[in-house]
Amino acid sequence: MFKISWLTTLVAIGLLLPGAATGPAYAKKNRDVQKDFQDAKADANTIAEAQISNVRTVKAFAEERGSLRKFEVKNEYVYKVAQEKAKVWGWFMFFMKFFTTGSLAGLILFVSSQVKNEKLTIGDVLAYMLYMQIVSRNIGEIANAAQGVAKVQGAANGIASLIVEKTEIDFLEQGTGKRPEYSAEKKEHISLKNVEFSYPSKKEVPILRDISIDVPKNKVIALVGGSGCGKSSIISLVERWYDPHHGTISYNGENVKDLNNDWYHQTQVSLVQ
Hints:
alpha+beta; ABC transporter transmembrane region fold; Rossmann fold; 2 domains; 4 strands; 61% helix; 10% strand
């Protein structure tokens, strides 16, 4: 294109710049809308799955209408976010087509003046327009690809935030920590002493209060109790999915906080369901 007419090419680039400038703005806005859309659909699906999987409980308490209202509220929000998403895409395509078509119209006017002044031939104009058609088509493909990228970014945003989120458990650095070895003279065991615990999402609701348990080696114990009494919570603490608010959990006399995390989970403890 520069070989045919460098001046016409510069004019074409200048005319296409406003359309190209809408791309970054659209990408940012669509990424935010796409994230909201994914979150809204996830919330609606969670409500539907919870009610369907517990359909007997729903029927037992005659909560069919209540469950339906919950899903309607979530589904209505999904619809509103989808409308916003469609508006963003519609305005972006409007501006892209407007600037693309406008740039072609402006280019035709400029080229006609060049032909009139005998600076370009009809053959040059035909070749140039064919090149411009190819460029315009590729710009359109870029716009479609940008929408796909925005969808991926919106969906991956939640995963990325979980990856970079700082955990409340202060693990030791990779490769550090104690690895207490087996000793025939030493009574190996798991011990919970004066443990108190509540889940981070409900800190005001205590789950365990001053619990002390000692599990010697080669012994099998059963944790028995009603629903919500803390059986699974004790296992979670031994696995160190959480840390207790008070008290200690030790393995072979060493606080689990001081153990090598990989060694502890890969070779010493496991959860079988």
